[in-house]
Amino acid sequence: MQTTLAPKYQGTTDGTEAEAILRKCVHCGFCTATCPTYQLLGDELDGPRGRIYLIKQVLEGATPTRKTQLHLDRCLTCRNCETTCPSGVQYGALVDIGRRMVDAQVERPRAERAARAALREGLTSPLFAPAMKLGQLFRPLVPAALKAKVPARAPAEAHRWPTRRHARKVLMLLGCVQPSMAPNINSATARVLDAAGIQTLVADDAGCCGAIRAHLSDHEGGLADMRRNVDAWWPLVEGLTGEGKVEAIVMNASGCGVMVKEYAHHLRHDPAYAERAQKISALTRDLSELLPELVPLLKPKLAHLLPRSAGEAGGGAGDTATRSTPQAHDRSAGEAAFASAQGRRERLAFHPPCTLQHGQQLRGGVEAGLGELGFDIAVAPGESHLCCGSAGTYSVLQPALATQLRDRKLAALAPLGADTIVSANIGCIQHLQSGTATPVRHWVEVLDQALGG
User: Fold this and answer.
1) At what angle do helices 48-59 and 13-22 cross, to 10 degrees?
2) Rounded to the nearest 5°, which phi and psi values hold at 282?
3) Are strands 376-378 and 420-423 parallel, antiparallel or unpaired?
């Protein structure tokens, strides 16, 4: 796509990057077919191709309007269009640039400004944890819409962290909202890795990955979050703390993972951080990327999940009953939860977050790994590639569209007849749970429970 930058954008970092991205677009429209908001609204300007045209016009000097801003706001940044695009257009980076340019010229209504500021500062603040505790205390009294955003208080067991030391060590980001909303995800991750002989370390000074501010057009605030994390992690990355070097930075929230993997890109022009950010990004792994190595280490501990072989009583190769072994007769209460009164394995429906399958381009790893460990897991056959509507702060800022996408996702998952829905991102988990009575959990919690965690 030929673009002639307006003088004010020529030679700027954003202008140069945006122009390079736009030149890859060939107007084919493949992206439109897989865009969730276009499917809901049927408006070309609410699909990637239309939004690209809007951003191109701004770059060429056209004055954006409130309508331009609304169309860009409705984008989920799910990046499904990137997976579909045959030309490799980096739409996610382009729409972030476009939003910043538009927001610099179009003033938002006061209520919107207040809401966005509250999300930027509130979700990343140390005050978020006590505020969440207060919300949980009064949860029975709050309106249903607010109650859906406040999960029930986690039991004490959710905070149990393993105490064994191992030669192998990884670093983990706890996240900004996850420790308060779903602390068991982090502790379950540490317990599962502990069961495989890997110790999980945490840098106390690390905080929000930067995604919240970056996606709300606070570019400098997002970069500041990234630099703080690089500084917090660097002693552990370099082995300067006496703990030894970590072999990876593990992310159990795919939204954080995709952002940290892109630190090298975001900080590439910062002479003080570019080299360190590149190393941080190279070390970062989504938790699912460790599964191929974890499976053989954990499989002997999960024999009770495996189907009975053809030679065992009452079972063929396709029998879903649990294996008859000494371990099966000595299950903990957590392990026993995986078999119903009919003696079948718990059925799991996996919702792959957009930040995992489109942002990080990781597909099939969770299903393959859990399946090999003996879990009965499946994905929705027709719409597993589509966004659930959570999309970071999107479910708060665009509640009507987010609810439609959530209900569509749950309807697609319903035919699987799952006992539990699992995912890999706290936002998706909380958003889906707000629309269903079926438990929605992180897949690592299910694995931890099967291990007796």
Assistant:
1) 140
2) -65, -30
3) unpaired
Q: Residues 437-450: what's their mean pLDDT? A: 96
According to DSSP, residue 355 is labeled I
CA distance 386 to 366: 17
Confidence (pLDDT) at 40 = 95
Q: How far apart are alpha carbons 336 and 438 in whole angstroms? A: 18
Q: How many residues does the chain have?
A: 453
Is residue 1 predicted with pLDDT exceeding 90? no
| Tokens, residue 439 | 């438990």
| Long-range pairs, 156-162, Cβ under 8 A, ≥24 | 157/184, 158/183, 158/184, 158/187, 159/183, 159/187, 160/187, 160/191, 160/453, 161/187, 161/190, 161/191, 162/190, 162/191, 162/194, 162/199, 162/200
Summarize pLDDT for 226-251 with one digit per residue, the tens.
999 999 999 999 988 878 889 999 99
Question: pLDDT at residue 159 above 90?
Answer: no
Q: Would you say 63 and 427 are in contact if contact means Cβ atoms under 8 Å apart?
A: no
Residue for token pair 């060429």: 60
Query: Which residues have CB under 8 Å from 265's CB, separation 6+?
Result: 93, 281
| C-beta of residue 170 within 8 angstroms of C-beta of residue 159 | no
Cα atoms in the 13 Å half-sphere on the side-chain side of 200: 22
- Mean of the pLDDT values across residues 19-47? 94
331-346 pLDDT per residue, tens: 333 443 444 434 467 9
Q: What pairing do the DSSP bridges indicate for beta strands 168-172 and 198-201? A: parallel
Number of helical H runs and strand E runs in the chain: 26, 8
